[in-house]
Amino acid sequence: MNHTKGGLVIFTANSHPSSRELGKRIAERLGVELGKVQVYQEANRETRVQIQESVRGKDVFVIQTMSKDVNTTIMEMLIMVYACRTSCAKSITGVLPYFPYSKQCKMRKRGSIVSKLVASMMCKAGLTHLITMDLHQKEIQGFFNIPVDNLRASPFLLQYIQEEIPDYRNAVIVAKSPASAKRAQSFAERLRLGIAVIHGEAQDAESDQVDGRHSPPTVKTTGAIHPSMEIPLLIPKEKPPITVVGDVGGRIAIIVDDIIDDVDSFVAAAETLKERGAYKIFVMATHGLLSSDAPRFIEESAIDEVVVTNTIPHELQKLQCPKIKTVDISMILSEAIRRIHNEESMSYLFRNIGVDD
């Protein structure tokens, strides 16, 4: 059954078969067929997109999930959006459940804010609206000059906890670092559970010693500067020993985060929780990148189950590690598409979501 007004076209920009699965699920929920498009790589590795039906005057939604070749998937998205723009589409909405380069959203020494660059390219290509999910930093929305709907996967993960963990009332929500404490607090308050925070873990930080700005001058010039104008030296940080703030003894530990990619920190957190007496350990995350040997490390770790959504295809990783479970979020994406196309309010999808969620 078609739940939308006419003039809706849904394309999947990714040529990888497993990445088209999410697009098919969304189209089925909306009662429409996927638009006809051909996406492929030329012999010289250039991306070519051929739209095989009319989009003139229509609302176009381009669904793109990230594959291992993230740069190619970005180019597919940009080229398809630009093709729809030059074909006189009425509006072009990008549906990127996982926004690429979202971790590179802050300036680091002589680096760059790459997520701002990606946002600018998408807007320049012709995107008029963006639907995404659980941005790594909510401030990324400010990089766009178009409307951005940052949906949440937490209702689906909370439902999984309540339905698939029989004794979840004996659980404690764990933040594997102070940085993810707000997310853990949000889960704990909704489930009426306690919270624990792991502090003192090894952080992925660049060494200040390699930055030229910290290099001392070759010639001491303090005589040329007034003593009162000398800049005080910032005391370097020193990591404390790993501690767990909160009681996890004899409890189920549920670690929550937005992205699980390099699993070293999750494995280390699980070992710490086991040592503190947790008898079962779950990991909940929205985006399961699970790069490199992540499935093998999870299988060999103290983690009992890793639950992620299908914002990113990870069928191969599930074959390598049966501990990985998937929660389907196509329902909220299809509802967002329906509401935007029918010009209905989006506030229904953000019920009970606070500023800090």
UniProtKB/TrEMBL annotation:
GO BP terms, alphabetized: 5-phosphoribose 1-diphosphate biosynthetic process; purine nucleotide biosynthetic process
**Chain ranges of the Ribose-phosphate pyrophosphokinase N-terminal domain:** 9-126
Task: Give the superkingdom in one word.
Answer: Eukaryota
Instruction: Please give one Gene Ontology molecular function term for this protein.
Output: magnesium ion binding
GO cellular component entries: cytoplasm; ribose phosphate diphosphokinase complex
Query: Keywords for this entry?
Result: Acetylation, Nucleotide biosynthesis, Phosphoprotein
> Which PANTHER family is this protein grouped with?
PHOSPHORIBOSYL PYROPHOSPHATE SYNTHASE-ASSOCIATED PROTEIN 2, RIBOSE-PHOSPHATE DIPHOSPHOKINASE FAMILY MEMBER
Membership in a protein family? Belongs to the ribose-phosphate pyrophosphokinase family.
Q: How does it assemble?
A: Binds to PRPS1 and PRPS2.
What name has this protein been given in UniProt? Phosphoribosyl pyrophosphate synthase-associated protein 2
